[in-house]
Structures are given as C-alpha cells and as structure tokens.
Amino acid sequence: MTQFIAARRHEELGAEFFDPVAPADFPQNILRHRDQRWAERIGLGHLSDEEWLRHFGRFEPLPGSFERPLALRYHGHQFRTYNPDLGDGRGFLFAQCIDPVDGRLLDFGTKGSGRTPWSRGGDGKLTLKGGVREVLATEMLEALGVYTSKSFSLVETGEALYRGDEPSPTRSSVLTRLSHSHIRIGTFQRLAYNEDEESLRRLVDYAIANYYPHLAGAADPAAALLEAVVEKVALLGAQWIAAGFVHGVLNTDNINITGESFDYGPWRFLPHYDPEFTAAYFDETGLYAFGRQPDTLAWNLTRLAECLLPLSSIEALEPALNTVWPIFRDALPRAILRRLGLEPGDADTNNGFVTAFFGFLSTSKAPYEQFFFDWRGGALSAERAARSPAAELYMSEAFRPVANALESFAPSADVNLEHPYFARERPRTMLIDQVEAIWAPIAESDDWSLFQATLKEIGEMREAYGVA
Prior knowledge:
Layout: E1 5-7, E2 18-20, E3 30-34, H1 36-42, H2 49-56, E4 70-72, E5 76-78, E6 81-83, E7 93-98, E8 105-111, E9 126-127, H3 128-143, E10 150-161, E11 170-179, H4 185-193, H5 197-211, H6 221-243, E12 245-246, E13 268-269, H7 293-308, H8 314-321, H9 324-339, H10 347-364, H11 368-374, H12 382-386, H13 391-394, H14 400-406, H15 432-445, H16 449-464
C-alpha cells in the first residue's frame, strides 16, 4: 500500500502569508465524489467513506500536516481593476503532501469551507451545482490533455444557500482541490503593494525550492523564476485553445505559478470555433473571450514581472516576457497535433496546418470537438471521418487545405484508434446544455446516475487519448 507522505511546507513562509482558520461546522456530510485514482496514487485510497468525510467534510487534520487550515493572503487584478481586499474568502489550504510518484509537493485546497478574514461579507460557501460543475470541468480538461487541478473530493453539506445566479435556495457543498500550488500572481502582487521586499524575496526562494528546484543557485532568482512561470503559463494557454476551453475569469488571483488551470466558475467549452465566445455573463466587453485568453495570460505575466522588479531589473526580466508569444506559437500546433494523435513536424509544417485548421473551422462552423474526434490519427481516420455527422463538411473545398496538411504528419505511438471510444459516432463533449442536463436530475430527484455515468465516460475518453 502506498504510504501517505504529509508535508506542511507553506508554514515555512511565515505568518505574513496566511491566517489560521477554523472550518465551517456543516449540518450534514454526504460524499458525492472522491477521486479514487489520485487517492490511490498519494496513499489515501484505503480510507473508508467515513474516514474520508472526517478529513474532507469535517476537515480533521491529515496526520503530519497542518494542525489548522491556512487561509492564504493575496491581492489581484479583477477584470484589470486592482483589488487589495482579496484572499481566501471561502477556502483554505487544508493540507500538503508529497506525491510518491514524482516527489512533487501537492496542496489540498478547499472551496466552500466557510468564512475567513477575507470573506468580505460573504458566507464562504459553495453551491452543490458549483461543486458538480468543477468536478466536470477538471475531469474533462484532464482527459483533453490540459494541466489542471483535480477535484479530489466533493461533499454535500446540507445547507440552503441563496445566490443571485441560481434558483434559490440551492444546495451546498464543499470541494477539496488537489493542485501543485495555490501561490498565485496575486500572492506576489500583495507583497509588492505592501512594499514588503523581505517577504517577496522569501516567496521567490520558496517557489524555487518547492516548484522549480532546477533553478537553485540562479544568479538572478527572480528573473529565473519569471522565465519558468512564463513557460508554464504560455503552455497552459495553448492547451486551453486546443481543448476549446474558456476559463471565464482570468484574474491575476486565478493564475498560479505552476501553470495549472484551477478555480473554475463560469467556464464553457466551444460548440464551434468562435474567438469572441465568452463564458461569464458578466464579461460584457469580452475581455476573457476564448480568443483573448493568450493575450490575457501575457498581460497577467507582465503584472508578475512588475512585482519582481525590486529583486531584479527591467533588463533582466524583460527577456522572459518576450518569450510568451514565441512559446505560445510553438506550443499551440503541438497541443493541437497531440490531441489529434499526430507527431509534429518542423515549425513551417506545424504552423501551416494550424492556419488551415482554424481557417476551416472558422468558415465551416464544424463542431469543435467533433473535428478532433473524427481526425484522430490524421489520414488513418479518413474512413471514420466519412461516416461522421460532420462528413459533409469534410467534402467541401474549404477542407481541402486541411486534408492536404494532415498528410504531412505521421500518427503518434499512442494514437490508440483501436480503443472502443473511437468506434462511437460522436465524442464526449461538455457543452453548457449538457452540464445543465447532468444537473437537472440531481436537483429534481437527487438522481446522481447521469453524473456518475458521465464521469465513467470521461474516464474512457481519457484512456483512449492516452492521458496518464
């Protein structure tokens, strides 16, 4: 049996970075989801459901980790307006552990665990629907090859919550997220805002020691850290575009330094290619629209660079910022080809394909995920694509440049076309109407069968796409 290796490294940063808090005392604890795959990986797979609820419903400490949860302090730009009154307002860092597989530090972070000093008048709670949506988002994104947090646990908590964007009262829940870091760009912004250079230096050293140990001994630690974070975040942007995903709220407090997608609110997947597609109804200007996500990530990374100026210089930091777009432009075709199960070629071949790909999707309005499903393996799937619901679109003149470009790529070793998933007519998708359909029987009759069946189906898709 895998041994759980507890950690409590975040405490090393000191009291300036967090507030010890108490979890909410919930009237009920009903387990709705546990990620058994990751539980087995980190040494918690043996927990009974009752033991699980003690730790992830009532938040009794995990042995060897924090004695009390830590509400983390940070600031952030929200829709590009600076807000110094943020922080963990309905969550906390519950525990940390070491991944026995790769030795990396992992955080257990919560959402909906009650009030903290940063709740700003809110109740600190999470709706059950919000929790369900986050599970669906993380499971789907992982299967599509996006570096994402894991929805480790979802517990229904037996309260009636009132929300303006949902029929109220609505049911409550608490989510536990497993992620490599909850240190955000906003964590650095708070220290820069407070002109706390000592804590800023300590945070840079901590980040390198725990997340980028290969940078130890760098002549300019701040510049080295920025370069590493830029690479991770630019890669994440490419993964989102390849997955057809819109995060919805790309504030600086929602971008962490390990480049993991996390903290899902009004997310959406594209029905078809549309650069102006937005996820949040309150994003009236389309600031965080699908096509603007890479630019937003670059803007956020510039804010991180500004925070690091007291420890470095413009001359040392600027080169890292200048790599955002080259990294993204190189990563995007690779992410798209990876999803298609194809080996990338040289830069010109890759870029030519991406131009043809987006040109076809723009003019044809072909279903976004259907294209990836139909053309998995490129030319190997020509017969499959001819039987697709979108087959007529593939016979158009507009598709010819894509067909020609696909001939340039060899299938990857994990193309896996013999998997039963690829015998289907349509891929598993997670469009907004499907999310609502999964929620409806839960809300109406506490029927979780469609939710569970969907997670099983996503697991099959993850297996088919060879996502470890």
